[in-house]
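We examine the record.
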Amino acid sequence: MTPEDAVRAIRDSGGVAVLAHPLLYKFSPAELERCVERLKDDGLQAVETFYSTYSAADERAMKRLALNCLLYTSPSPRD
């Protein structure tokens, strides 16, 4: 199953498609934004912006990515 297939399957079953821990994929910022935009075309709805290994700067970067791509963010215990 491709990521695109997974997003469509989640949406088709009534779920919310969230890209989990995107920084762990080791994409460059440009590659990550392209990936998110591509998945958004298939129904991606949100980006996980808080993860246990993320720094405050990482969280800000993921929030910016979600905002730039017009997606929701996951909640943070720091919010």
About this structure: The CA atoms of residues 45 and 70 lie 9 Å apart.
